[in-house]
Amino acid sequence: RKEVEQDPGPFNVPEGATVAFNCTYSNSASQSFFWYRQDCRKEPKLLMSVYSSGNEDGRFTAQLNRASQYISLLIRDSKLSDSATYLCVVNEVNQAGTALIFGKGTTLSVSS
Amino acid sequence: NAGVTQTPKFQVLKTGQSMTLQCAQDMNHEYMSWYRQDPGMGLRLIHYSVGAGITDQGEVPNGYNVSRSTTEDFPLRLLSAAPSQTSVYFCASSYGVNSYNEQFFGPGTRLTVL
Q: How do strand B31-37 and strand B87-94 relate by DSSP bridges?
């Protein structure tokens, strides 16, 4: 099975901190990359797609390094509401078509 | 739009029982899929569908059946429940016929098999 590996976590940070999550993927043919957020006992929701040139959405910055097969998510000025599990997701191409491969997730806890 | 809905929210089964988990979406999405999420594991794809009448197996299809008679509905059937199928099941849908696009997940069904 193709793998998506994430930092094990949990990350415990104070409000206002900057925190970075890393993710590596094993299939060099993967074409699309995402970060999803999952709150406790809730469904995953798309946080942001990850583009080759890197992209930013407010306090969140995602980077992709295809050569190293590495994805990162940077959260600046952490808020209490950022506490959640962050899932690294890779869309890979296989014989049957395309499939999303999910990492196990990294848990973030932001405290006041 | 209601988005993706799943029923039931919780279910307890005995080993050997069968049941159907319901999933419906009102966004006219072609792509629908079923995942299971277990502690310490990422979400794993069970079955998926790229349109009405078309289904295919994912990573962990054994013990599950699906059908897609309409664009809106994608039920998941457990043929003979086993304790190993205790999990949280998520249905998801997305625009288009592949998984490149944003996946919209339902709220999940928490299944316990005794």
A: antiparallel
Q: Is B102 on the interface with A (CB under 8 A)?
A: yes
Closest CA to B99 of B33, B54, B27, B42: B33
Chain B neighbors of A91, CB-CB under 8 A: 99-100
Query: Quick one: closest CA in B to A103, which residue?
Result: B42
Question: Is a pLDDT exceeding 70 seen at residue B27?
Answer: yes
Which one has a higher pLDDT value, A96 or A12?
A: A12
User: Nearest to residue B3, comparing CAs of B81, B89, B94?
Assistant: B94
Which chain B residues are within 8 Å of A101, Cβ to Cβ? 42
Collect all residues with Cβ–Cβ distance below 8 Å to A67 and sequence separation of at least 6.
none
**Rounded mean pLDDT of A1-13?**
86
Place of tokens 């990162």: A72
Closest by CA position to B44, among listed B54, B33, B59: B59
Here the tokens at position B70 are 């309409």
Total length of chain B: 114
Asked whether the CA dihedral B34, B103, A34, B9 is positive or negative, the reply is negative
What residues contact B62, with CB distance under 8 A and at least 6 apart? none
pLDDT range class, residue B69, cuts 50, 70, 90: very high
Burial class (CB in 10 A: 0-12, 13-18, 19+), B65: middle
